[in-house]
Amino acid sequence: MPTKGLAAAIAVAVAVCVLAPCALLFLLLMATTGSGSVCQTMSHGGQQDIEGRSWDAEQLTNARIITEVVLQRRLPHRAAVLAVSTAIVESRLINVHYGDRDSLGLFQQRPSQGWGSAEQVTNPVYATGTFLDHLMALPGWSTMDPGGAQQRVQRSAFPERYAPQEPAAAALVDQFWTGPRNPPLPADGPPAQQVSATGCPDLGGGGVIAAAQPGLPPGFTLPADPRQRASVEFAVAQLGKPYVYGAKGPNEFDCSGLVQAAWAHAGVPISTGTRTQRHDGSAVPGPGQLQPGDLVFIPGSLGSPSDPRHVGLYAGHGLIINAYDDTTGVVAHTVADWSPHIVAIRRVAPPAVPAPPPWGGPPA
Fold first, then answer.
1. What is the DSSP string of 234-274?
2. Which of 31, 70, 197, 302 is deepest in the core (most CB within 10 A)?
């Protein structure tokens, strides 16, 4: 073969070897996404790119909370876009505890202007609900020009900033929106603000109908393993304390805050929020293999089997300690009551001593 022909053949072979896997990847992505836009979203260490814009885990979580509050109130998709675009402008979707004068939180709401207490306006669920209350009070809010409704609610010195953020907000909302874009309203109109009823971004227990246990059973003992013992001892000591969205103690907790604080008491750091805690440690096959200190996940008020939003800590003796909701607080439920709803169990620290049987008693 002539030298030029050999060189050309080698070049073709190299190109096939290099490009064929890429072409195959492209075709696979086409098949799974149904379009040629194969790079719409990519994750990089907690970052997610959505239509050319990068968002971190905190921003995505807050966008999801806002969207879920809108969904809970059965408001249109447009309401979520307006709320998220406002939070992008006001705080970059970060729940900040500072701002101009006394402005705070995702929406930079001012306690001095009647938006709520500092604790309330830095509660993303409360802040979103209050924004929506003001939005719903505007006649024709859904048909106003881009940026118009946000400005009417916020009364910003920079009204021109809202409209340019609506496309990015719509792309974020689309990541979390479920159901029709304009859901039918109940006969008595949209639900009122329900912040206290659903609480945390883990959004309350939901689905566990049985009443909480009145107290610890006779003969209850703490586990022998030092770290398990410390985590369970802390969780048990919180029984009866109130549930407050976003609270991590010492006087009130939400569900993920309670288990995080319990394991911190044992000297074991775990992540914040159920969406990340469900990946901490190692998986446990099922309730029959529970050990004290294990994290037990159920869908909760607005979660799903693939995205559980409520967590409790197994205390041994068939009990799960959890910050259930704001009407119940920190309570104990039985594993039997939770079992139909359990979708994941995680063991964040292996025991250093032989584990007792799942329902308590001496080690085997």
1. HHHHTTTPPB-TT-BSSS-B-HHHHHHHHHHHTT----SSH
2. 70
